[in-house]
Amino acid sequence: MTSTKKTAGTRHKADKYTEFVSRGFGKDVAKRLGLPQPAILRRYEPNAPLVGGPILVLGNGAGSDAVAKVLLGWHQDVRRHATPKEKLGAVVVVLDELEHPEQLANPLLALGASLRDVSKNARVVSISRPAAASDKPAVAAARNGVDGFIRSLAKELRSGATANGILLANGIPASSPSAMASLRFLLSGRSAFIDGQFLTASSAGSTAEPDWNKPLDGSIAVVTGAARGIGAAIARTLARDGATVIAVDVPAAGDHLAAVANEIHGTALQLDITNPEAGSRILEHAISRHGRLDILVHNAGITRDKLLANMDNARWDPVIAVNIASQLRMNEAFLASPGLGENPRIISVASTSGIAGNRGQTNYAASKAGVMGMVRSTAPLLAERGGTVNAVAPGFIETDMTATIPFATREVARRLNSLQQGGRPGDVAEAIAFFAQPAAAGVTANVLRVCGQNLVGQ
Ligand code: NAI
């Protein structure tokens, strides 16, 4: 166990090593011994600047001009050319018109030259189009090239800086609202533990001017597994962003659940989500107290690890029941209900284990990969109602669940990513809050990894 005291909805477990090597004697020791030196990440704080300095926008087409204009509208300090020695907060490279891999050199080498001048915790964000089988081979090669480029650059950046990308589907413009909402999220401290990843903007999204400080104002949200860990952080983050939150957890976690719900002025609902009536119980609670339900966060999850050779139904069945079967059943109930608000949002918590696989977790990985399959095939059903469904796949996050991993394994797991540290429950929560925002209306069927670019998997 880590040394942090266990309280209701524990905020985050301490990573003492990162604190130790971030200053003074610890910093010197780590440097001399060549030990990992994880940076203290820049995380979201209300009223803090979006980025830590001017934003350089690279790219020659109309798309880059339009993106620069949006950034100016957000009162950002925008540069179209690097000024030597000026510290940059972010570099945005707009590549929406690529037709051949030979066109990558100019913008990407200009980006490379600017990296000497980026500040700590800087952001690099590309805006491009996904390669499709129907593209001409040279177009597909150029577009796919951006993928390999961003994932490699993310591994080169240091001091908490990250590189991520936005993919513009269906010919939507680079400056479309859903792409700009994604850009704002990736530039901000909300995306601190997201590295080497892509968000797909599948349609242009809403043109209504968002309230960036209280994006969820007036929304009614439910979060399962909200008594502690990631679920408690999701509940707090949604409430911070303006939502009224219904916190759900098993009766055995009732005290912690009540504490979280009280803290955020939400309501608590004691419920085992494997109950066949769970969907209707949640709807009943939401509609009777708040009139409707807008945002559903499927967070509750369990592990029952064992090598497959020793696996039995006692370990397999509950994992499938809690992690995926309950979500399928609840979604059916939600989608059949007239009580679901306009433009509903469903966001599921998956896991990098479901992408890369993990020894001893065949049951868990099957359930979490199942969540990702469910999300992709539920997207068209939600689209019919103006809604979206997405998943967030956390890597190593400092919670009660990971605190039970033996020390040596835990220390390796926590450092094996580009940011050399575990994430915090709040990092997962920020990604979920982003998908829930009205401004993310055109962002659906994504599986976003919040893993600091964990070295296993894609
Ligand atoms: P946790 O074990 O700290 O919290 C899970 C919560 O879900 C608990 O409060 C528990 O009572 C509740 N819960 C379990 N079964 C339930 C049921 N049948 N009905 C209602 N509530 C139930 O776990 P943690 O770490 O906060 O994980 C949250 C989610 O994130 C899970 O889906 C987990 O699989 C996923 N995840 C966690 C990672 C990590 O590093 N901690 C990594 C990847 C994914």
According to DSSP, the number of beta strands is 13
The largest pleated sheet is described as: 7 strands, parallel
CATH class annotation of the largest domain: Alpha Beta
Low-confidence stretches: 1-11
**What radius of gyration results from the CA coordinates?**
22 Å
Name the CATH superfamily classification of the largest domain: NAD(P)-binding Rossmann-like Domain
Shape: globular
Order of helices and strands: HHEHEEHEHEHEEHEHEHEHEHHEHHHE
The small-molecule ligands in this entry are: 1,4-dihydronicotinamide adenine dinucleotide
CATH topology (fold) name of the largest domain? Rossmann fold
Give the proportion of residues in helices: 25-40%
Describe the fold and architecture.
Helix 5 (137-156) links the parallel strand 4 and strand 5. The protein folds into two domains: 55-191, Rossmann fold (3-Layer(aba) Sandwich); 220-450, NAD(P)-binding Rossmann-like Domain (Rossmann fold, 3-Layer(aba) Sandwich), CATH 3.40.50. The chain starts with 15 loop residues before the first helix and ends in an 8-residue tail after the last strand. 39% of the residues lie in helices and 17% in strands. By secondary structure, it is an alpha/beta fold. The strands form two sheets. Strands 9-8-7-10-11-12-13 form a seven-stranded parallel beta sheet, with helices on both faces. A six-stranded parallel beta sheet has the order 2-1-3-4-5-6, with helices on both faces. It has 15 helices and 13 strands. The model is unreliable at 1-11 (pLDDT under 50). The chain has helices spanning 16-20, 24-33, 62-73, 105-114, 137-156, 177-187, 229-240, 254-263, 278-290, 313-336, 353-356, 362-383, 400-403, 407-415, 425-436; strands at 55-58, 78-79, 88-94, 118-128, 162-168, 198-201, 220-224, 244-249, 267-270, 293-298, 340-349, 388-394, 447-450. Bound molecules: 1,4-dihydronicotinamide adenine dinucleotide.
